[in-house]
Design goal:
The complex is a heterodimer of chains A (about 230) and B (about 180). Chain A is about 45% helix and about 5% strand. Chain A has a 4-stranded parallel β-sheet with strand order 1-2-3-4. Among the domains of chain A are: about 120 residues, 3-Layer(aba) Sandwich (Rossmann fold); about 35 residues. Chain A is globular, with a radius of gyration of 22 Å. In chain A, helix 3 links the parallel strand 2 and strand 3. By secondary structure, chain B is an alpha/beta fold. The relative contact order of chain B is 0.12. Helix content of chain B is about 20%, strand content about 25%. The chains are: A alpha/beta (about 230), B alpha/beta (about 180). At the A-B interface, loops of A face loops of B.
């Protein structure tokens, strides 16, 4: 085991936020050993069960719905069902224009996906901004806010195109190594945890709510509970 | 949100247009109005009147009343012309679908101080249908409806700077939007 390189690369700007214990190095060593044995099997299993997230912001979502229906049937390729929560999904198909108002929500959804997670940028709007490229409110390419694995051009792409993108993504999953992916995990960016209504950071807002709760007279709160 | 072509037409038409039925109705109640060249609606020509902002509440309440029954607020829109900010109200009647009325409040740009927003009274307190329309106008065109219960941006994020549908709006170039630095917008 001594000859195995146990260097874990952390980006410079994140070094202050990440602390590595001996356990991390142990896991890293084990991963290096086990990777070669497990990766082909794990990747094969993983690539055949890429469950997408229900995420559609405009007309591409119609094609995305179509590909889930029986005529095209994305579940033939292992993308069994569209999950309504990111905790149960492996992939986002960003189907539709991403506006500046939607961008923080999309980042949050991406961060909530469990590793390993993948993104298919579907349609012209999410690749470059599309015909809304010159607009004041549109993000000019979803790859500016989250990392993208497969680009799928079209306006909107045909359902067959989505299946093709999925097959390309499966190829990518089969050739990747878990160890490499684990190292890239540290490169994630932080989310803006901001309340959209007030514009305050969520932590500040929670502190304010706690403060208000403490100030509330106990009798009044009891009455509210009984009511 | 679209600019209407009346401004171009008004130069050709005679300046004094006699008051229409709604203008006369308001005049009888002591509310002054100016008739503008008719707009085109679903049922042909539509009477278009301009009133002073201070008379807006009284006028809207009056035409909504039992006599004229313009009881459906189709939309509130905003127009930026070269020298005014317009707030435009389209009214329609449930009783008679051929009845339509367009009410305009024009705020001259010269009367708006530097760094201030043009102000128009809000009709939301007695006509809740206008709530989101007025918020949209505030968001995109920067018309301030005073008396509105919750005048907050509707479409753009809360931290947006400026009002994007104004003629003089320039989109700042940032990480999300830098592909066309020399664009016309």
């Amino acid at each position: 085991m001594a000859d195995i390189d146990t260097k874990i690369e952390i980006p410079e700007e994140l070094k202050s936020t990440v602390s590595l214990s001996n356990l991390d190095f142990l896991v890293e060593k084990l991963t290096k050993v086990v990777d070669n044995l497990v990766d082909p099997v794990a990747n094969w299993a993983r690539s055949n069960s890429v469950w997408p997230l229900t995420f559609g912001t405009s007309c591409c979502a119609i094609e995305m719905m179509s590909v889930g229906m029986s005529a095209f049937d994305i579940s033939r390729f292992g993308s069994e069902v569209f999950r309504a929560t990111p905790r149960q999904a492996d992939m986002i198909i960003t189907a539709g224009t991403i506006t500046r108002k939607m961008a923080p929500a999309l980042i949050t959804l991406y961060e909530q996906l469990p590793e390993p997670k993948y993104v298919i940028a579907m349609g012209a709007c999410t690749i470059t901004g599309g015909m809304f490229n010159d607009s004041y409110s549109v993000v000019q390419g979803v790859d500016r806010i989250i990392p993208v694995d497969v680009y799928l051009p079209g306006c909107p792409p045909r359902p067959e195109g989505i299946l093709d993108a999925l097959l390309k993504l499966q190829q990518k999953i089969r050739t990747e190594s878990y160890g490499e992916r684990r190292q890239r995990k540290y490169a994630q960016t932080a989310v803006r945890h901001v309340d959209y209504d007030t514009g305050l950071p969520v932590e500040t807002l929670q502190a304010l709510v706690e403060e208000a709760r403490e100030e509330m007279p106990p009798a009044a709160s009891n009455e509210q509970k009984s009511a | 949100m679209t600019e209407q072509p009346e401004a171009a037409k008004s130069a050709e038409l005679p300046q004094e247009i006699p008051l229409g039925p709604y203008g006369q109705f308001l005049k009888d109640l002591g509310i002054g109005s100016t008739r503008l060249p008719d707009s085109v609606g679903t049922a042909g020509k539509v009477e278009t009147i301009e009133i002073d902002g201070m008379d807006l509440h009284q006028a809207m309440k009056s035409v909504r009343g039992s006599e004229t029954r313009m009881d459906f607020l189709l939309m509130v829109s905003g127009v930026e012309t070269n020298d005014t900010w317009d707030s435009v109200y389209h009214l329609w009647s449930y009783e008679d679908s051929t009845k339509e009325l367009v009410v305009k409040v024009r705020v001259p740009k010269a009367s708006v101080a530097e760094g201030k927003l043009p102000a128009v009274p809000s009709i939301t307190p007695f006509w809740p249908a206008a709530n989101w329309h007025e918020r949209e106008e505030y968001d995109l065109l920067g018309i301030k409806y005073f008396g509105h219960p919750y005048l907050r941006r509707l479409m753009n994020p809360w931290d947006w700077e400026g009002h994007p549908l104004r003629k003089d709006y320039k989109q700042p170039v940032d990480a999300l939007n830098d592909k066309n630095p020399h664009s016309m917008r």
